[in-house]
Amino acid sequence: MKYAVVSDIHGDLSGALAFQKACEEIQPDRILCLGDILYHGPRNDLPDAYAPKKVIPIMNSFTDKIIAVRGNCEAEVDQMVLSFPCMADYNVIPFGRQNIFMSHGHIYSPDHLPPLNQNDIFLSGHTHIPTAEQRNGIYLLNPGSISLPKGGHPKTYGILDESGFTVYTIEHSVYLRVIFS
Questions:
Q1: Residue 130 to residue 178: CA distance in whole angstroms
Q2: pTM, whole model, 2 decimals?
Q3: 1 near 161, Cβ under 8 Å?
Q4: How do residues 126-144 score in pLDDT, each as one tens digit?
Q5: How far apart, in whole angstroms, are the C-alpha atoms of residue 124 and residue 131?
Q6: If one looks up domain 3-179 in CATH, what number appears?
């Protein structure tokens, strides 16, 4: 199973289009969206290509493949225009002998983990900083932000499969990688 992973689009058309293009090329089985899809939020600068109405049809084109969780910038009105569920605080997906626990990162985070088993995957966004590491037997993965990266990082998305997690720039260059043991 191959998952494309995206977080923190924040209504940015260029980020949504870059992710759509990446998905056309890699043909993921599923798309995992870690929230903050349409609204930029009061703490973020307005994205250069802020056009949430144009992001809606792009994200809705993934309806049959997407599993999404609520970010701290999601609101009920977002669910009214998105054709896939996006208001769950977290989701748990079986992944071989592991589980993927996906959360935006504002409720559960790498510093406040839910109950997980050895080698489980904690997948989150929120920080806009890509992460691919194992800590205390748990994989901590974050695709960064496709639109508003922080900390000097580039715009990124992730690919998760049986071998590991890879963070790519929007130019499709490998940025970070962790291999599952």
A1: 12
A2: 0.96
A3: yes
A4: 999 999 999 999 999 999 9
A5: 9
A6: 3.60.21.10
